[in-house]
């Protein structure tokens, strides 16, 4: 996983698959985020932020796209965590998200 520590947080690289069949985060050498949302009207970006927020246990307001807002390859700044907390997304991890589980 590509990540670097910065003051007050970390920056991660992620590859986004919009309009996917399911919603999940896969971590191996890179972070792959799959979302059902289309890339239209910033919907996929917002879904990525929401999923990372839930996976890391941080508020959505602490996650920002710093590079690649119109690209599949993104860099995201996550405030309030360190590389140790980010390790909870360790290699080989897959986390699926179900809208029904949320009640939404």
In short:
The chain is α+β, with helices and mostly antiparallel strands and 104 residues long. The chain is 21% helix and 37% strand.
* CATH-level-4 superfamily name: YggU-like
Question: What count of helical segments does DSSP give?
Answer: 3
Percentage of residues in helical conformation: 10-25%
Q: What is the CATH topology classification name? A: Conserved Hypothetical Protein Mth637, Chain: A
Given the C-alpha coordinates, what overall shape results?
A: globular
Instruction: Give me the oligomer status.
Output: single chain
User: In the CATH classification, which architecture applies?
Assistant: 2-Layer Sandwich
Query: Main β-sheet, in a few words?
Result: 7 strands, mixed
Low-confidence stretches: 100-104
Which structural class should the secondary elements be placed in?
alpha+beta
